[in-house]
Amino acid sequence: MPLADVAVIVSAAPDLLITAGALRRMAELQVLLLICNEKFEPCALTLPYHRATNTEVLRRQLEWTSEWKCAIWRQIITAKVRNQAANLVHLRRAHSVLMEIAGRCAEGGRDHRETKAATRQSAPSLASITPSRRAGLHADTPEACESRAARYYWKHLLPRLSARQQTQETTRNPGTRAGVNGMLDYGYAILRTAVLRSLAAHGFIAAIGIAHAPKAGSFALADDLVEPLRPFVDRELRLFLQCGPRPMEDWIRHVVKVLTLEVSHGRAKVRLLGYIDLYVRSFAAAALARANLPLKIPILT
Q1: Spans of all domains in the chain
Q2: Would you state the pLDDT for residue 150?
Q3: Of 200, 239, 285, 296, which has the maximum CB count within 10 A?
Q4: Distances (CA, A) of 200 to 161, 169, 191, 274, 280
Q5: Using CA of residue 64, residue 272, residue 145, residue 217, what is the dihedral sign?
Q6: DSSP per-residue codes, 128-178
Q7: What pLDDT is attached to residue 119?
Q8: Can you name the residues that pair with 42 across neighbouring β-strands?
Q9: Torsion angle, CA of 136/138/139/145, rounded to 10 degrees?
Q10: Which residues of the chain fall short of a pLDDT of 50?
Q11: Phi, psi at residue 147, to the nearest 5°?
Q12: What CATH architecture applies to the domain 3-119+129-289?
């Protein structure tokens, strides 16, 4: 297979040998290498040395305002909750609740400009009210909507996945490295790698995000943009386990196929990997315009 046709290489084999020449060529072609340890946990990632293909994108990234970041984050969380709802469409009540949360998240952004001045004049001091009342004042913020949706979503989805895998997991616990939670983490790492590939190609610095706090060795912007894509892995795992428990090794071989899933884009069908690039490209356009332009986020159907 020509290396130019490869997007991501996932190494779960301890005896894999790669030459320096191969690594150099992979960097030139924006091919990312994800390396796993003996427990099949992603532990290292190669990225091309940063070179901005569009220096204007880089300058805009350093000038993002809190208002712009909040508006873009609202779009991202709204899409995430809608994708979560699509995974629970077979549970009518749960699907309706999540769609309502997504709608409130989207509408909250439209009402924000009209109520901002009034809220500033009439709202009590946050220091003088109870925690529950304080939460109520921000009920339609992206953070509040994401939190409510996550509690409801995992309450209905995770026990079903756990029952099929014959584990005792009842809550979503990232980083547990075992069971359904470990399988989800591995799938999310694959998606995050694909997002990093597109961010590098469009000249972004992945360490500078819009909502996730930057940490040493982290890629905050990739963590931001991958949020609405996570339900694609959730659905893939649900289908993968529909016939009963499966070993992690089988999931590792299977989950990379999530990047080849066909997603509706207008009247056409686009593979998820290509759609991720359209998504990042639309994010770059919004950053360049300094405006809350619609992002082309893949939506589950």
Answers
A1: 3-119+129-289
A2: 95
A3: 200
A4: 34, 36, 14, 15, 10
A5: negative
A6: GS-HHHHHHHTTTSHHHHHHHHHHHHHHHHHHHHHHHHT----S--TT--S
A7: 36
A8: 36
A9: -150
A10: 112-129, 132-137
A11: -65, -45
A12: Up-down Bundle (1.20)
| DSSP-based helix, strand, coil % in the chain, nearest 5 | 60, 5, 35
What was the pLDDT predicted at 113? 47
The token pair at 129 is: 């009210």
Residue 270 confidence (pLDDT): 93
Of 253, 210, 234, the closest CA to residue 149 belongs to 234
Per DSSP, 290 falls in state T
User: Which single residue is written with the structure tokens 């952004």?
Assistant: 109
Question: Which residues are within 8 A (CB) of 130 and not within 5 positions of it... i.e. 6 or more apart?
Answer: none
- Residue 256, H or E segment: none
pLDDT in tens, 237-279: 999 999 999 999 899 889 999 999 999 998 899 999 999 999 9
* Whole-prediction pTM: 0.82
Amino acid letter, 138: H
Model pLDDT, residue 97: 94
Q: Please list, in sequence order, all residues whose beta carbon lies within 8 angstroms of the beta carbon of residue 48, skipping any fewer than 6 positions away.
A: 27, 28, 30, 200
